[in-house]
Amino acid sequence: DSLFFNLPSTPADEPFAVNGAYIQDTDPQKVNLGIGVYRTANGSPWPLRVVADAEKQLHQASDVNRHEYLTIQGDKKFLKLAANLVFEFENPENTSLASGESEDKDRVVSIQTVSGTGANRLGAELLARHIRPGCVWIPDPTWGNHHTIWDLAGVERKNYPYYDNNLKKFDFEGTIRTLSESANKNDIVILHACAHNPTGADPTKEQWKSIAELCQAKGLIPFFDLAYQGFASGNLEQDAWSIRHFFNFTPRLEFCVAQSFSKNFGLYGQRVGALHVVNSTGCTETSQKLLANLCHLVRGEYSMAPRGGSEIVRTVLGNRKLKSKWFEDLMTMSGRILEMRKALYDELIRLQTPGGWSHILTQIGMFTYVGLSEKQVHEIRSRHHIYMLKSGRISISGLNESNVKYVAQGIDDVVR
Ligand code: PLP
């Protein structure tokens, strides 16, 4: 017998499993609302125009270093631009320092990662080994991989109730109550910075303020997952508002940000991301220790993140013209998603489909909890070849002019 014969079975990753089933389906009307990737009005992937421009520039450059190793930390110019996108250090409003305080940017230690997943994983590993939190508080529901990541890091997982199924919005009271009553100092709290996956329901600014106060009062360690900056609203500032609020909070908070460029640059397969660890003092010794420990973990895992995608992002963010073209591309993607939310909503109203549907308009980003039960999700798949996660999460970007009526009819059919 093989040594490996008795390996445990592992759960299939649902979004990839649903995608696989969709590909196998031969029905011509099939619709894929499962996987979280951007699709055009024709249902095809969209390499961003600005990415094509940057690639052209990079290919023309006769740089003999292009395939050399990066440093273990990654591409420093990329990291500076990436951190600035999140924290906006150049904003003059961010520079009100009390005497003796370090500069804002000194509080942030950044390292390049294997996209957002790698940033979540690296942050989990750092905290698990060196802070030894009692547990991690994970929103219920959440992006499924948070569970895998923190399980692999060996940290006990607990849930806080994120979604109010009746009101179809963020369960603010439930979140505050659970964390106030049950969380302890140095526990981690996973927060989706914007466009919560899978529900599309975000806290309001006032609610974010209360969450920051609670984290400060109880000594909790926020861990922001930032996978949709600019992609959610089309506005980089708005999508990073929560993080910037936590960053500017007094007394100072310490927290992590896992940043992904998969969605906002359409660089899914390139694996571009960064982990930013914010410390309260910005003291040089602390920052050096932090960076050294992050580098140590990365070196033993994969030596360094890949450079192909980060060069593209660096080229765009470092060039004013390309950057404004990127803003246009972000508007194209977020705008199409907003149009499709409206189209689906209008069609369900026109069909007088039983139930309330306004959450489709108020929820934000790629996903919506459309409000189907697991049984209805099963029915819509078997009767109409429409694929979504069993929670009823749909990826709005899978909708387009040619299938939105069909999808609305499918929903109408299974809820009646
Ligand atoms: N975090 C959330 C909430 C996500 O939705 C995703 C992607 O779907 C990620 C992180 C990470 O994606 P990637 O590893 O491609 O950056």
TrEMBL record:
Keywords: Aminotransferase, Pyridoxal phosphate, Transferase
One record GO biological process: aspartate biosynthetic process
Reaction catalyzed: L-aspartate + 2-oxoglutarate = oxaloacetate + L-glutamate
Entry-linked Pfam families: Aminotran_1_2
Gene3D superfamilies named among the record's database cross-references: Aspartate Aminotransferase, domain 1, Type I PLP-dependent aspartate aminotransferase-like (Major domain)
Molecular function as annotated in GO: L-aspartate:2-oxoglutarate aminotransferase activity; pyridoxal phosphate binding
Domain Aminotransferase class I/classII large: 29-411
Required co-factors: pyridoxal 5'-phosphate
Any further remark recorded for this protein: In eukaryotes there are cytoplasmic, mitochondrial and chloroplastic isozymes.
NCBIfam families per the UniProt record, alphabetical: PRK09257.1
The protein's name: Aspartate aminotransferase
Organism: Penicillium angulare
Lineage of source species: Eukaryota, Fungi, Dikarya, Ascomycota, Pezizomycotina
